[in-house]
Amino acid sequence: MAPDHIEALPVRATYAQLLADSEDFAGSVIAYEDLLPAALRIWGPDHLGSLMIRGCLAEARVRRDGAPADGLIDFAGLVDDCLRVLGPGRYVTEATLAFRDALRESGPALPSTAYGELLEQYGKAERSGRATPTAG
Description:
Distance between the termini: 39 Å
Number of helices: 6
Number of strands: 0
Radius of gyration: 14 Å
Order of helices and strands: HHHHHH
């Protein structure tokens, strides 16, 4: 299977996320930067997967560079696109808003909760019919 095959994209995204989870943010950025053009070409810019990859790449860059202010620029654009494509109340939109707000509040520090964790928490809340995640 070719690396740009549609079925390879989620595997490549998982690999990039595993690098981030192991705190290899430089490697994660490289993996996401390599993946994003293929996702945009195959899925298009408004596909849920493309939006999530953009968010994960932006976070990996923030954590690699230790620069929350730079991440605010990427997440502001991503929030706009999520609202336009998905609308408010969808888990990716809400997780993206939450991470953008965490970046704003963190000042020079980095948010303690990862974007991927927020995606998971808000996704579970959406599937269960709750508006927002609950602790635990």
